[in-house]
Amino acid sequence: MVVILVPLFIGLGLWQLDRAEQKRTLAASLEMRSTLPELPLGVHLTDAGELEFRRVIAAGRFLGDKTVVIENRKHRGKRGFHVITPLLMESGQIVLVNRGWIPGEGKQMTMPDTPDSNTDLSIRGEVRIPQPPALGLDLKISPKEVMPHWPYLTLENFSDWSGLEILPFQILQAADDSSGFMRRWPLPKGNDAMHTGYAVQWFAFALIVMLIWLRLSIHKTDTTSIEV
User: Do 90 and 57 sit in the same domain of this protein?
Assistant: First the structure.
């Protein structure tokens, strides 16, 4: 049991230390990228991971007929939707824009007045890479469905539904960009203290196992000496 448990606990502790280092790296990256000037999309496009959390600006026109709404998004305790619309940029590339939150429940919602496909726009916001939940549901993707309601967004699902070739990230539109939508985007948490605490616990478990083993070994040695 000692041979199994001690390496296991030490390994888990080292894994938590690695997670803490990742969080510190993320926090440093967020702080650094928040100070950078807005990056014009379509001019400078690098790896999506290098662009994530950067403030960007994109010029183009919305493809309103390819809008998707994401259900059960909350704002100040109220249920509603996030509205996702692709933007056809002047470069010919297409990027998804999360335009923000609107109130509604079920299939009932009031969509704000939106620019048509002939309106030239300049969209500002932050780059994020949407991730599915840990336990993702199988979405029923129907290309004929108009403005589908999905529980979450993935780039693959959107591409399958729309038939569009999109960039590997989305833009969270800036809060002061336009009216009609509520926008309060949470920042990723770079809290490394939690993982450091977990690492200390795992190392403590390994130490406890070793102390128990030493105590039992000494007790066994003492008993053997008495019997002799």
Answer: yes
Distance (Å, whole) CA 103 – CA 182: 9
Dist CA 149 CA 20 (whole Å): 36
Does 166 share its domain with 217? no
The pLDDT value recorded for residue 180 is 76
Per-residue model confidence (pLDDT) at position 69: 92
Do 145 and 89 lie in a common domain?
yes
Clarify whether residues 118 and 206 are in a common domain. no
Segments of the chain with pLDDT less than 50 = none
Provide the β-strand partners of residue 81.
102
What gap in Å lies between CA 1 and CA 67, rounded to an integer? Answer: 57
130 phi/psi in degrees, rounded to 5: -65, 140
pLDDT at 43 (0 to 100): 64
DSSP 13-70: HHHHHHHHHHHHHHHHHHHHHHTSPPEETTTS---HHHHTT-EEEEEEEE-GGG-EEE
Residue 179, domain member (yes or no): no
130: region left, alpha or beta (phi > 0 left; psi from -120 to 50 alpha): beta
Please give the structure tokens belonging to residue 67. Answer: 């809008």
